What we know:
Blueprint: H1 2-9, E1 14-18, E2 39-41, H2 42-50, H3 58-67, E3 71-75, E4 84-87, E5 104-117, H4 127-136, E6 151-157, H5 165-176, E7 180-193, H6 203-213, E8 218-223, E9 229-235, H7 239-250
Parallel strand pairs: 1-3, 2-4
Antiparallel strand pairs: 3-4, 5-6, 5-7, 7-9, 8-9
Helix pairs in contact: 1-3, 4-5, 6-7
Amino acid sequence: TGAIISSVMGADIYENWTDVSGFLIADPRIVNNPKQIKKITYQELRELSYMGASVLHEEAVFPVRQAGIPINIRNTNDPENPGTLIIGDDQAGEDYANGNVITGIAGKKDFSFFYIHKEHMANEVGTVKKALEVFENRGISIDHIPSGIDSFTIVLPSESVEKVSHEIVEELKAKCKTDNVQVYRHISLITTVGIKMAYQPGISAKLFTALGNNDVNIRMIDQGSSEINIIVAVEDKDFEKAIRAIYDAFIK
């Protein structure tokens, strides 16, 4: 209701008073006393929320986001705390992120990989489409599809394929005429988000070095051309250790 009224009135800012002082850079159950996020863009918020970070409901964000109105998340029990300011993607100035390159870290456990290999796949048309149809026909949503020359991997939550993974493997082999299909389980995805990461050399190296120094094996890397986030896949057993390593590497 507050977001709708703010949008209709053309307010300068929409203050949403809750029982927390905004958002934290990382999950406090994993990182000891993580710093508070002072400013975050709508796009960054979306990336973090998709990977499991606790954020506002979409209904509380959409009306003001559409109108370009910032949201200030404040704590009723701590009114002096400035909270977290959610701003438009084009409103992040030079001082954005308060000196930190990244804005937040979030992740989820229990993903599965379907690794599909086929010789000379790059010379064929439609192999990936056929594989995706196997999941589409079962009403299963896909999270990521990293690929190589002769292979690609379909990443999705384990719970969505828990009872049908064997049938899916056989169907992929038959439909795509693959050389090999393997399923890997107990995988976690971790996203490191920050619009200031774009065009800054060494960010990926710093992240991978932090994980390597903490004996965390990376199973997958995914980064879009916008460079707003870097997603890595690790074993479930390394999930908490990986998040702490990334936090310590980037947060001053």
